[in-house]
Amino acid sequence: MNTEHFLKIFLEQKEPFEGIKGQQDVKFALKSALISGRHILIIGPPGIGKTTIAKSVAKLLPENRFVRIQGSPDLTAEDIIGDIDPIKAMEYGPLSVEAFTPGKLFKADKGVLFFDELNRCPEKLQNALLQVLAERKATIGSYDVDFDANFTFIATMNPEDSSTEKLSEVLLDRFDVIYMDYPESQKIEEDIVNEKAHVLVEVPSQIVQYAVRFVRHLRNAEKLEIRPSVRASIGLVERASANAALRGKKKADFKDLYDAMISVISHRIKLKPSYAFLQSESQFVEEQLRSFMEVNKISMEREGDG
Hints:
By secondary structure, the chain is α/β, with parallel strands linked by helices.
């Protein structure tokens, strides 16, 4: 296991997860779970850096090996663990190890096996994973396969996604759960946006502040069932920059940001059923935007002149 390696790094390095802004409680819990050799399930909404934090763990390992599995109802145990190659089976025999073609589990040895959206995989695959996590052994067809399983298993789960399989209590019992949420403050989210957004022309800090503030305002909206992530904040800044570039300007203003709102946000939110029949998501964004402009005393003419 990599427990001693992780402990040495955590004691020597003040901040081994520099790429993750804020989330101090999450980082501490992650360190504790890693040096305990635990399988880790990170639960939180989309777009908050769950994949980034898993990749940062892989970078701490000598092999820097990161193997990703994307959860899907179509996934099978053979996709993850491996399968019998029919041509090799004819040559070596169906029960021969030589006939076995390894899956992604084998490729993750001495690295990080990252299973994104674990709760989207079918129950049959959950059962196959249970055997791997508990026994470090996989059953393929009519024979058992022993393999090197010295990997750090990190899975994620989006609690807001209702179209998923329920994780069995037995499988959950194999994990330590870490809960992760949206950036703790406006400043941290602005730092993330400034680092991640690819802009074509300058986006003044005030416009970035407006973009992030509006997205964070929507997250607190009582009417919403699904809320916008940090990707929405990044998208607003990038589209404001693109709008300004198309208008031949050297820097974006609020008009450029305003014109991107519906396109960037409306599909990233979902109204609760009790409100959805009264208005669409686009109408809701427009309503909230008018209110936001009034509260923040934003005049389109004044902001658009610069």
